[in-house]
Amino acid sequence: MGKRLLKRGLSLLLVLTLMLSMVACSGGNNSDDATDDETTQTSNEEGNSEGDTAATDETAIPPETKGLPPMTTDEIELTYANWGDDPNVNEALAQAFMEKYPNITVFIVNMDAFTYQDDFTVMAQSGLLPDCFMVMDEIGWTLNGWLMDITELYDNDPDSEKVFDYVKSLGVYDGVRTMFASNALPNIAVLNKDYFDAYNEPLPSYDWTFEEAIDIATRLTHPEEMKYGLGKATMFNLDLLPDYADPIKSGQRGYYGYKEGEGYLFTQDWIDMVNLRNNLHVQSVFDVATGEEKEAALGDAGAWLGREGYTAINLDHFWSFDELMGSNSQMVAYPFPTSANGKVPVSSDVVGISAQTQYPREAYELAKWLTWSPEGWDTKVQAYIDNETVPDKLPNVEISQETREKFYTAYKDKDGIEAIMKSIENGFDVSTAVPGFKTFQNWLNQEGYMSQILNYSNPEVSAADIADELTAKANEIYQSEMSSLKDAVHSLVKYNIADYQ
């Protein structure tokens, strides 16, 4: 078995060179000659592969009748492109896939998130798309025809029954699946135990509520000491409350009140959460330290106080887990708190199959293996353990207890991560791969409404006064994009199981 590791941020020129070379030698094994270091290639000399098939309505196909055509036994090559994945983990996954299907050579292309959209546009226009890939512009790439209709692949895959219900419809437009959720990225809480101990505040139970979290944070606020009950999410100093008001409070609607089939609604829960968020800033419960204050205390005007140990409760995205847990303070991980009827907000990356691939069945199997496959997750978490790194994603699918135990080992924190993993089994999808979202977000930023609404010291616009206008604009964009999608998705290249039986 030969292998070569290319660097972690392939230039577009290298990507195109790689793709062209693969076209030239399609069906054969790769040489072991070293190339640059951004693509992982693993080659095998003999074997066979298998893939999956699906349809869109999850209730249409009884589980006992599901099944996918067999994988090809021809010698083939497949390429998967991503941004942000751990290259060592993907290398281990690719090796394991090729051991399972020795006739398939896998290339992993690790690209730069900041140039991913532009590079993909060039590759698509050149007819050189990877066989499967992380999708950045979900609506745009669907409308461009870059993605395959994989409805039958996914719906006929028995493993798709194990995917958490709330995320199954992600990537489905007018009954056509163009992509699937590849992981779970829940909102989480990271509590500073040293901070709690300093003020004789006991840690809450793992089933704490949103209201309890706000009460605790208020009690633990001491702005005169530059100590705050609530930290800003991520090093970009954001806060999450208005964005996820509806999942947190009612568990009925998503980001900006989105609901599949209905569109957007800026609800009373959103209005109340904006007002709560602003009041918490006025009361200095949220971190409101100025750059000058941080410079004086820490020697760094841009210091992230959550990481520095100056905040008690940090409500954050999952991708901040490792950074916050690496604080010099003793930090403990918790599920994101919600109200009694609320659900934990969960984002997801999405992955699609190229409309240009010659091997859709096999490309689907590879993409699934690298992302959400229960079997693939066992290999993936073991790779994290072997590399002594912390997983930056969680499964969006039922996994075995043995695999679950590996997660506890990888995180070195069974109680906290066990509670987080349990909380997302019935989470609420807040991914941005839904019609209208990104276009509306761009409009919102251009108009500057959110900065006016969230100017807590002197709000220029009240949430209540503008909620109806935002709802109307969001749904205008939603209806426009849904209309375009309905025309586009039924013209996509489609995988039909009958063609392979």
Helix content: 25-40%
- Total helix count? 19
Question: How many beta strands in the DSSP annotation?
Answer: 15
CATH topology of the largest domain: D-Maltodextrin-Binding Protein, domain 2
Q: Describe the strand arrangement of the main beta sheet, using strand numbers.
A: 1-2-4-3-5-14-8
Number of domains: 2
Q: What features would you describe in this structure?
A:
The chain has a seven-stranded mixed beta sheet with strand order 1-2-4-3-5-14-8, with helices on both faces. Strands 9, 10, 11, 12, 13 and 15 form a six-stranded mixed beta sheet that branches. Strand 3 (76-83), helix 2 (87-100) and strand 4 (104-111) form a beta-alpha-beta unit. It has 19 helices and 15 strands. Helix 2 crosses helix 14, helix 14 (374-386) runs parallel beside helix 15 (401-411) and helix 15 crosses helix 16 (414-423). The longest helix has 27 residues, at 463-489. It has 501 residues and is an alpha/beta fold. The chain folds into two domains: 2-184 and 348-399, D-Maltodextrin-Binding Protein, domain 2; 185-346 and 430-483, D-Maltodextrin-Binding Protein, domain 2, CATH 3.40.190. The relative contact order is 0.16.
